[in-house]
Design a protein that fits this description.
The complex is a heterodimer of chains A (216) and B (227).
Chain A (H helix, E strand, L loop, with lengths): L3 H15 L6 E8 L4 E8 L4 E10 L5 E6 L5 E8 L1 E7 L4 E8 L8 E9 L18 H66 L13
Antiparallel strand pairs in A: 1-8, 2-7, 3-6, 3-8, 4-5, 4-7
Chain B lengths: L1 H25 L4 E5 L3 E8 L4 E12 L4 E2 L8 E6 L5 E7 L2 E7 L4 E9 L11 E10 L6 H8 L3 H69 L4
Antiparallel strand pairs in B: 1-9, 2-8, 3-4, 3-7, 3-9, 5-6, 5-8
The chains are: A alpha+beta (216), B alpha+beta (227).
Chain lengths: 216, 227
């Protein structure tokens, strides 16, 4: 009972201190309508490395424009009509960085875009783990190694899930298109064959005289 | 006796303050702008029985001062969550700062939509909202300091718990992958069937139409005494 209070207090103090520079990450999938642009902003400290991975999941030709701007307004990354890409950058200026996805080149296909924006390194699960003075024991090192390996597995699973979503979207698109095209082609076939017969018959039909010549 | 009770109350108070500080810290980070009546939707593709926690904070644009106000009471955001079949899982109105949670019962694309329906906005013409959003799913939604405090785990036990949660998430994702692959395979096989049957049907229709055309024209020409 008595030992819990100073422990909670020290954890609270460290959490409050860490509020200033808490590393963050955001992984979102959003819909981007046609002719639209959507921007996201994040506050980054100086010297911190951030990375942006994005991928287009559904829509049109599965491509999107993307650009990243630093707080001074300089474009530090710009790509057009990309399906997926990964961009890392060390922030030279402290401030609000913005990254935007644009579908303005497309007139009728809205897109679904996935992005993963990671700032800094992953924080330790307990705030006071970051300030230890002794080396890690073998058990703790093993845990850290396993944790890093599992993170790689989860990232790889996410990557394959996104590729599979894209392929499945195309397959379902093809599935619905096959039916509508077949019906359309059958209708066209009937229309063409009937009109061919009617046209041919009209060539050989004598035109009725408009008025008989009156014999005097 | 009184000292023990006071110590226990202090520990609880500190723990409450700790949890509050951790919750408040989570609502910062990535932000974007939306218009007054605009609706912004996000998609979370998650496996079965996965918890998703979303934190958001909204700020309103003040036209006179040309700055975003730190907090605006009376500003409300409506959060709507739909499951992959389109059924509404969560549909609630929260304040200007809120936290929503839901657990998925079917695997697939869950759609999280946010829009503001505050009527106060009409006073500030051309109002824009800045929305800070943070959505965490599965293992990332776990709050480890809180778990350590609640179950009284040592550091090593907490690391082991984190690894167990990660492995559980990987297993759920693999089950979801099996389900997705089955759907993909069914769609492909159905397309294959459709293409096959439609090709046969269209060839038969083509042949029958050709035969009908020839017979009709033959009888027409015979009637015209050209053949």
């Amino acid at each position: 009972m008595g030992s819990a209070t100073p422990r909670s207090a020290s954890v609270l103090l460290l959490v409050l201190l860490l509020q200033v520079e808490r590393p963050r990450g955001a992984e979102l999938t959003f819909e981007l309508p046609d002719n639209a642009k959507q921007c996201f902003h994040e506050d980054v400290e100086q010297g911190v490395k951030f990375s942006l991975d994005y991928q287009v999941i559904t829509g049109g030709h599965y491509d999107v424009d993307c650009y990243v701007e630093d707080p001074l307004g300089n474009t530090i990354y710009r790509e057009t009509k990309k399906q997926y890409d990964s961009f890392t950058h060390r922030a030279e200026v402290k401030g609000v960085y913005q990254f935007c996805f644009s579908n303005e080149f497309s007139t009728f296909s809205h897109k679904t875009v996935y992005f993963d924006f990671q700032v800094g390194d992953e924080p330790p699960i307990l705030p006071d783990m970051g300030s230890r003075v002794t080396a890690l024991t073998q058990m703790e090192s093993a845990c850290v190694t396993i944790h890093e390996a599992l993170k790689t597995v989860i990232d790889s699973q996410t990557h394959y899930r996104l590729r599979e979503a894209q392929d499945r979207a195309r397959a379902e698109d093809l599935h619905s298109r096959v039916s509508s095209w077949s019906v359309g082609e059958t209708v066209a076939l009937f229309v063409v064959s009937f009109s061919q017969v009617l046209l041919l018959k009209s060539f050989f039909t004598e035109k009725r005289p408009v008025g008989r010549a009156v014999h005097s | 006796m009184a000292g023990v009770a006071a110590g226990r109350r202090r520990a609880m108070g500190l723990r409450a303050l700790l949890l509050f500080a951790l919750c408040a810290a989570g609502a910062r980070g990535l932000y974007f702008h939306i218009g007054e009546t605009e609706k912004r939707c996000f998609i979370e593709e998650i496996p079965d029985e996965t918890m998703v926690i979303g934190n958001y904070r909204t700020q309103m644009w003040d036209k006179q001062k040309e700055v975003f106000l730190p907090s605006t009471p009376g500003l409300g955001m409506h959060v709507e969550v739909k499951d992959p079949e389109g059924k509404v899982v969560l549909s609630r109105q929260y304040g200007s700062e809120g936290r929503f949670t839901f657990t998925s019962h079917t695997p697939g694309d869950h759609q999280i939509c946010l829009h503001s329906n505050s009527t106060r906005m009409t006073l500030f013409a051309g109002g824009r909202l800045r929305v800070h959003l943070d959505i965490q799913a599965g293992e990332h939604a776990n709050n480890y300091p809180e778990i350590a405090a609640k179950d009284k785990l040592t550091e090593l036990q907490l690391r082991a718990r984190q690894l167990l949660d990660q492995v559980e998430q990987i297993q759920k994702e693999q089950d979801y992958q099996r389900y997705r692959e089955e759907r993909f395979r069914l769609t492909s096989e159905s397309t294959n069937q459709r293409v096959l049957w439609w090709s046969i049907a269209q060839t038969v229709i083509l042949i029958l139409t050709g035969i009908w055309q020839m017979r009709h024209l033959k009888s027409f020409f015979e009637a015209k005494k050209l053949v």
